[in-house]
Every structure is written in C-alpha cells, then in structure tokens.
Amino acid sequence: MYVQLAWGRARPGAWDNLREFYVDKVIPFTMGMPGQQERQLWRGASDPDEMGFWSVWASLQELRNYETSDARRQLASQAEDFFYPMAYPRGETWIKHFEIVSSSGEGTAEGAFLMMAWGKLRLGSWDQYEDYYRSQVEQTTTSVDGLRKRLLLRSTEDPDEGLSLSVWESEEALLRYERSDIRRNMAQEVENLYRGEFWVKHFEVTDTNQ
Fold it and tell me: Known InterPro entries for this protein (predicted)?
C-alpha cells in the first residue's frame, strides 16, 4: 500500500470551510478512484490551523494517476483559497509519497489522535532502523494502554526518509506514552541514525471515509 500525505497550515479562521470542503467534496469525489482505499483529514492538536490530508492507495501507479488527473487538479484549485500562496513566508505546505512497509493494529476512527514522527536517516541506515522498529518498537509497545495502530512508512523518492505513525484512543493516552520511559529509551536507541532532520507532530483525526 502507498500513501499520499499532504501537510500544511491553513489561513487563520479557514478550518471550518476547509473541513466542509473535504467532507462534502474531496471524500465523495475521490473514493471511486481506482486503487483508493482510505481518506482521512487531520487537524493539529496544538495548532488549530495545521492540517494533514491522508490517502491510501493500492499501488504507487494508481496514486500517481490520481495526482496527475484533471479531477485532482480541480480539487487542488478549489482548495487554494484555504492556504497562503507558496511564495509567502507562511505558505507552508508539502505533498509526499510513502510506502507502508509495516502495519499493525486496528483501523483509524474519527476522534483518534496521532503521533507522527518524520525524519531523514543517515545514508544507508534504513535497514537498521526498520529492523529495530519491527523487533523493538512494535513488540515493546503492543500492550501499551490506548494504542490502536502503528505504521512505518518509507518515502518513495528518498530511501533515507521515513515516517512513523501511531494511532491512539485519546490525547491523554498519546501524551502518557510520549512522556514514558519506554518511549524515551527507544528514541535514544535510534537517535544516532538520524542526520539532524527530524520532527514529531500530533494530530486529531476529524474525518475519515471509514
């Protein structure tokens, strides 16, 4: 499976209109596209203007077919009003493609909270990172209270870029885990694999087609 993830900050006060546009137009208009499996809209847990568009596709080719389609261009054109132009200092948006290399747990429901850790690894260290993720992160956190799902994603454009996503029943459960010794110890084990480009963000899943 492959993911298209669009991240950005909406204009102040534009969230309600952006959400209405996503629910009324984006989800129903695109769910019939060949290969599309899932769509979600996320809102920043600490920044109400921060958002994420998440879509899952059966193949990378089907994702790219959609991305270059007239339908997608029309939707993107309509969505421009909700964001600052890219040329402006606050025109912060990007779209990335990832392959889901590991997935465990249940589905993602509206109202769930996400911890998303993105980063770029040192050249050639992906296999070591993935091995640690599968053998330690997935196994160690299986019984953590409130955890519903884990995903490890690898960029389709940069083999050293990846994203770890965990889905939580509540923000309280997410924060409790983030502050725990378990999470702190695991982060220390892999920090030497990163090359300085790294961040962690929290989102609420406001809408999903599932």
Answer: ABM_dom, Dimeric_a/b-barrel
Q: In the prediction, which pLDDT does 192 show? A: 79
Q: How far apart are CA 55 and CA 36, in angstroms?
A: 7
pLDDT tens string 12-58: 889 999 999 999 999 888 888 899 999 999 999 989 999 999 999 99
Contacts (Cβ under 8 Å, ≥6 apart) of 64: none
The β-bridge relationship of strands 2-9 and 50-57 is: antiparallel
Assign domain 2-208 to its CATH architecture: 2-Layer Sandwich (3.30)
Residues 6+ apart with CB under 8 A from 159: 126
pLDDT per position as a tens digit, 174-184: 999 999 988 88
User: Hey, which bits of the chain come out as E strands?
Assistant: 2-9, 36-44, 50-57, 93-105, 113-121, 147-155, 161-168, 194-208
Q: Where are the domains of the chain?
A: 2-208
8 A C-beta contact, residue 55 and residue 38: yes
